[in-house]
Design brief:
By secondary structure, the chain is mostly beta strands. It contains 1 helix and 11 strands. A hairpin with a 2-residue loop joins β9 and β10. It is globular and about 40 Å long. The strands form 2 sheets. Strands 2, 4, 5, 6, 9, 10 and 11 form a 7-stranded mixed β-sheet that branches. About 5% of the residues lie in helices and about 50% in strands.
Length: about 120
Amino acid sequence: QVQFVESGGGLVQPGGTLRLSCTASGMSSEMFSRFEVIGWYRRLPQTQPRELVAAFLSGGATNYGDSVAGRTTISRDNSKNTLYLEMDNLNPDDTAAYFCGARLAGRAYWGQGTQVTVSS
């Protein structure tokens, strides 16, 4: 069974740095490397749809959400089936549930999410 598990959320001070990890299980490293889209998304408080934070696209290109571009880095280690997110200079507007998600052959996979709260 394919599973994505996020870790690294919690309380972060304004101006601080967020580091998240997402590890996929139930798949080979070869499958992990073939996702058409794999990335981080977040659901802000009082909203329903998830918004893009950062993602890898087919061919290795990256895509960043407008509100986080320039202070966010997505990376991956295919040998460990793990996706990473680092976000600097956090502010209260970054408070959200963060999810890793991926798509392969028309099927979407999501982790359970990890809550990030930016507050002093």
